[in-house]
């Protein structure tokens, strides 16, 4: 399998962490978003909307979207299980993976896109919307902290894909100068330290 | 099963359409976003972040997030299948459900939130961000039209959960005065007409 990725972008990192947890071998091709290599006609043949990551199979078929790629790999390599083993656990993991994506990662990406020098002159930036998202994120970090007082991982007693998504969001948030408030959010900080100890966090 | 919903909101509608396709019986409680009934301390016990829909089971357990609810119901009631029957089909459906959600529904909700009278004075609106999202949606409607020239449904030859998400996004977009350009986007219009013929579209 061949993964088109950018080493600095959060969505490709979700897939690399997932592959590392699974112990799955794969090749990579770097597609730099900084130099707009993802927007060339050639790459748009792989993904018409120019997003990363993209997975290419041996037979040339391509699969887009981080979670679609992770689910595909979970189907091919069921162990260790990261998406749940029964209906209720699968639902809980899906719920928390979506909370991590929609309540953390998506707002973080909006702060980055709408304020950072990286995108200046390349997209229409709206810093005022980034302010709204910063406020949203402060409330959500506090909520995740409260939830993580009740259990060691987002979806329950064990590490799952939801923890990967949240960790990638929180690490990427530092680019936008958003950090865990360790004093006020000790449970979130302790959870993050647990994730950082995993070898997959270096992927 | 008991579904907390708002009849006018797009995410609860995704679940109602899904339940209708499955032929699953359920009860509903209306939680009006217009009157902020979703923000009461009582409802926040069901969902701390005040979003709809929420599914409550017979034993009192609650499940949040539209897609988590749909996956749970798919596990309990596998037929008709709406999430895929093998690894590759499941991956394709996940990919297209995410495209429908992240490229259509999420931007549509941002246009609505940041411009509509409904939210005026209730949230910090940023109309300039809505303009960015409108431009994004015009490009994505054109892309979906191009894709739907190649097959009858988003993820392939048959109706799936991805079509539900896209249809709910496109219907809700009319609230923000965004409509399919029937002359320029005939494939998207024909697909939408196919979805509208299904009894579930009235759910």
Describe the structure.
2 copies of one chain form a homodimer. Chain A is of the alpha+beta class and 203 residues long. Chain A has 2 domains: 2-76, 3-Layer(aba) Sandwich (Glutaredoxin); 87-202, Glutathione S-transferase Yfyf (Class Pi), Chain A, domain 2. Chain A is built from 7 helices and 4 strands; from the N terminus they run βαβαββααααα. Chain A has a 4-stranded mixed β-sheet with strand order 2-1-3-4, covered by helices on one side. In chain A, strand 1 (2-5), helix 1 (10-22) and strand 2 form a beta-alpha-beta unit. In chain A, helix 1 (10-22) packs parallel to helix 3 and helix 4 packs parallel to helix 6 (161-173). The mean pLDDT of chain A is 98. The interface between A and B is large, with 36 and 36 residues.
The fraction of residues in strands of chain A falls at: 5-15%
Tell me the strand order in the biggest sheet of chain A: 2-1-3-4
Largest sheet of chain A: 4 strands, mixed
3D shape of chain A: globular
CATH class of the largest domain in chain A: Mainly Alpha
Element string of chain A (H = helix, E = strand): EHEHEEHHHHH
Alpha carbon gap, first and last residue of chain A? 16 Å
Measured by residues with Cβ under 8 Å of the partner chain's Cβ, the largest interface is: A-B, 36 and 36 residues
Radius of gyration of chain A: 17 Å
Low-confidence stretches of chain A: none
CATH topology of the largest domain in chain A: Glutathione S-transferase Yfyf (Class Pi), Chain A, domain 2
Domains of chain A (count): 2
Total number of helices of chain A: 7
Question: Which structural class do you get from the secondary structure elements of chain A?
Answer: alpha+beta
